[in-house]
Amino acid sequence: MDELTWELLDEVYGFLEADAIKSLLEAEGIGVQIFQESVGRHAYPVTVDGFGRVQIFVPKDKAAEAREWLKVYREGIEQDSGQEQNGQTEEKP
After folding, report:
1. Residue 36, Cα to own-chain centre: how many angstroms?
2. Half-sphere exposure (CA, 13 Å, Cβ side) for 59?
């Protein structure tokens, strides 16, 4: 029996978030496979009893690097979200 070479990194709800994570990980040189259980893809995500859930897989030998990257990514999103809720936004030149 062949050993599994891919490891589940995360599960998200909605293809848009999964695709964003996939693109960013691939930009870091980490291969990604996504698997979605759904009736079809829609512009507006719908989640019913797990449908709409997207699993993100990465190669086992890159899993630790991908998990660290995902942690930093999520911390950045939480930080940005907190600033927006407090009315703090950075002005870009």
Report:
1. 12
2. 7
